[in-house]
Write a structure and sequence with these properties.
This protein is mostly helical. The chain contains 18 helices and 6 strands. The protein binds s-citryldethia Coenzyme A. S-citryldethia Coenzyme A (SDX) binds next to helix 17.
């Protein structure tokens, strides 16, 4: 029996069905509201709006719960490799051993890019931001794979998904090395996805790497480093209808090329209110520079007339600890000594957290640390520079964008995104 809501406007009464999903809040189905009433609903920023139905990721912001295809993030981040999580997001089930080996092998071979695309990076200025280079390169990918425009069958959809997931780390490492003015390193098909990315970032021209003392004594890229980055990729893999995923779905709704949609997602993620926050967090910790200065910056963050915000704090959905932040905080504690995390940045971060979590301003607004508050210190210890942090977010999130793109494409009732407005002009 469908539950209904009744809306009274003037002397008229309207009934709208209330739909219930498998988890989370119910929704009020107002698709005929404008036709019935001649009025629009009004929700800038979509604070109370569900833009679609989806079976991929579930978040409970009050409880700080995150699930991919029903699996809790705590389980996926500790028990599975990132590529197994990619398989889960795309295929709606975790891979068998054989399925994983086949998927891993396919991505290793698809990690290479056309030489024409490699040359694109030579045209960027040395100080170009990696996100600008990455977004351009992904859009340019659609010039090499334009046949996807008529993607209709399952096989070509999966091929497109594997192709872009495999190529993003390669393109990201090209952007990094272009920034340093050093020759790029081609992928090594003998290395697993995450190890291969670190290899393409670190190897000397010709592909040489040296074992270093400490954690890299036995292998030129240590298992600890691979596991830390693999976990970070998993934590970033998908996150329901966030701003960049909404961008990808909007571009998908016009029928544009899937790589154009991902390129648009990269541009949306770049903003410091979204994925760009991870770079800003470390820049902010460096700006604060000493725990003596923390109080001054907390005060600035609370001042309504001061645009300064505490980067890495607050979230539209999480009104409790971001579960990904909790996992990263534990990872920081585990890796502190092994990876040699920057103790000064850690000390400042912990001081901010300690003060903010007990301060009325943050408590009243339910502002907790989010994923971006902790990721940067670990990435720094992996030798990844700040301006590459959001590119790391892109590598992790591409599978989420593609899964959501595929889900949209399979929705026979999907319509072009075309919201209306409250007109306040002349
Ligand atoms: C990501 O959506 C996703 O799922 C995103 C993401 C993903 O995986 O895709 O989780 C990744 O983007 C994480 C968020 C990273 N961004 C930051 O860390 C930037 C700092 N945070 C803020 O800009 C803000 O908290 C947002 C953008 C994250 C959320 O903004 P909302 O939900 O629109 O909240 P708001 O701006 O309306 O703030 C509510 C109140 C305001 O105060 P009042 O007007 O009520 O007095 O809280 C204040 C804000 O001024 N506030 C902050 C604050 N965040 C919100 N005050 C100081 N510092 C902050 N960080």
């Amino acid at each position: 029996m469908t539950e209904n809501a009744t809306i009274k406007i003037g002397d008229k009464t309207y009934k709208y069905p209330i739909l219930e999903g498998t988890r989370g809040p119910k929704v009020l189905d107002i698709r005929t509201f404008y036709k019935d009433t001649g009025m629009f609903t009004y929700d800038p920023g979509f604070t109370s709006t569900a833009s679609c139905s989806s079976a991929i990721t579930f978040i409970n912001g009050e409880k700080g719960e995150l699930r991919y295809r029903g699996y809790p993030i705590e389980e996926l981040a500790t028990k599975y490799k990132y590529l197994e999580v990619c398989y889960l997001l795309i295929n709606d089930n975790l891979p068998s051993k054989e399925e994983f080996l086949e998927f891993d092998n396919e991505l290793r071979h698809r990690a290479f890019v056309d030489e024409g695309l490699r040359k694109l990076f030579d045209s960027f200025p040395r100080n170009a931001h990696p996100m600008a280079m990455l977004s351009s390169a992904v859009s340019a990918l659609s010039t090499f794979y334009f046949d996807h425009l008529n993607t209709t069958n399952e096989k070509s959809l999966r091929e497109m998904a594997a192709r872009i997931i495999a190529k993003i780390p390669t393109l990201s490492s090209f952007a990094y090395r272009r920034g340093l003015g050093i020759p790029i390193i081609y992928p090594d098909i003998d290395r697993y996805f995450t190890e291969n990315f670190l290899y393409m970032m670190r190897a000397y021209p010709g592909g040489k790497m040296h074992k270093q003392p400490g954690i890299r004594a036995s292998k030129d890229i240590s298992d600890i480093e691979i596991k830390a980055l693999d976990t970070i990729f998993t934590l970033h893999a998908d996150h329901e209808q966030n701003a960049s995923t909404t961008t990808v779905r909007t571009v998908a709704s016009t029928g544009a090329h899937p790589y154009a949609a991902i390129s648009a997602g990269i541009d949306a993620l770049w903003g410091r209110a979204h994925g760009g926050a991870n770079e800003s967090v470390v820049a902010q910790l460096e700006l604060i520079n000493d725990i003596k200065n923390v109080d001054k910056y907390i005060k600035k963050a609370k001042d309504p007339d001061d645009p300064f915000r505490l980067m890495g704090f607050g979230h539209r959905v999480y009104k409790n600890f971001d579960p990904r932040a909790r996992i990263l905080k534990n990872l920081q504690d585990q890796l502190k000594n092994e990876l040699g995390l920057d103790s000064k940045l850690l000390e400042i971060a912990h001081k901010i957290e300690e003060i903010a979590l007990n301060d009325e301003y943050f408590k009243k607004r339910k502002l907790y640390p989010n994923i971006d508050f902790y990721s940067g210190v670990i990435l720094t210890a992996l030798g990844i520079p700040k301006n590459m942090f959001t590119a790391i977010f892109v590598i992790g999130r591409t599978v989420g964008w593609i899964s959501q793109w595929m889900e949209f494409k399979k929705d026979k009732k999907a319509k072009i995104a075309r919201p209306r407005q409250l007109y306040i002009g002349p």
